[in-house]
């Protein structure tokens, strides 16, 4: 037997309690053909990305409308091999693996596919920041998303589209 209990909170976001686990419906952001969806699941957050490219896609997090000091998650597929990279932008044009900077890798890749001119991907991250290279992704927190995609899976290839948008998680 499965027990589902639903209720509305003050922001009209449906919350469901499934055997003690609280989840929320997906929130959604669309810009320039790219869709980002996110859903809090206990102590982590699930992200889904869909973009009009067969190259890399990226979702970044920052407290200001700036690329420097942002945490960027890149997802791509090369030679049928899926990859997720966790980077931190230390300066303009200079993003490095968080592990190379002494931090941790926070993103856990679930799916990635490049097909029919689109890249779709999903990954999870902890809601709590793991180190100084990550941000608090708790529900209700206000952050800037950096949404980007490229025509190629090579990270040296510049983005075809990059937009910043302030969101409430």
Count of DSSP helices? 0
Shape: globular
The total count of strands amounts to 14
Q: H/E order of the elements? A: EEEEEEEEEEEEEE
Mean pLDDT comes to 87
Uncertain runs are 1-20
Q: Taking strands numbered 1, 2, ... along the chain, how are they ordered across the largest sheet?
A: 10-9-8-7-13-14
CATH class identity: Mainly Beta
In CATH terms, what is the architecture? Answer: Sandwich
CATH topology: Immunoglobulin-like
Q: Would you identify the CATH H-level superfamily?
A: Cellobiose dehydrogenase, cytochrome domain
Task: Give the radius of gyration.
Answer: 16 Å
Strand content: over 45%
Termini Cα gap: 32 Å
Report the helical percentage: under 10%
Brief synopsis:
With 169 residues, the protein is an all-beta fold. The chain contains no helices and 14 strands. A hairpin with a 5-residue loop joins strand 1 (4-8) and strand 2 (14-18).
């Amino acid at each position: 037997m499965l027990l589902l209990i639903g209720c509305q909170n003050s922001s009209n976001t449906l919350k469901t309690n499934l055997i003690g686990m609280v989840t929320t419906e997906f929130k959604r952001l669309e810009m320039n053909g790219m869709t980002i969806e996110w859903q809090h699941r206990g102590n982590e957050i699930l992200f889904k990305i869909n973009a009009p490219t067969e190259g890399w896609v990226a979702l970044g997090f920052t407290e200001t409308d700036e690329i420097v000091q942002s945490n960027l998650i890149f997802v791509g597929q090369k030679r049928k091999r899926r990859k997720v990279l966790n980077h931190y932008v230390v300066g303009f044009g200079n993003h490095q693996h968080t592990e190379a900077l002494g931090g941790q890798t926070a993103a856990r890749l679930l799916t990635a596919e490049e097909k029919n001119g689109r890249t779709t991907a999903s990954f999870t991250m902890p809601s709590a920041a793991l180190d100084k290279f990550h941000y608090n992704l708790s529900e209700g927190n206000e952050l800037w998303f950096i949404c980007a995609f490229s025509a190629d899976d090579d990270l040296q290839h510049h983005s075809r589209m990059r937009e910043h948008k302030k969101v409430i998680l």
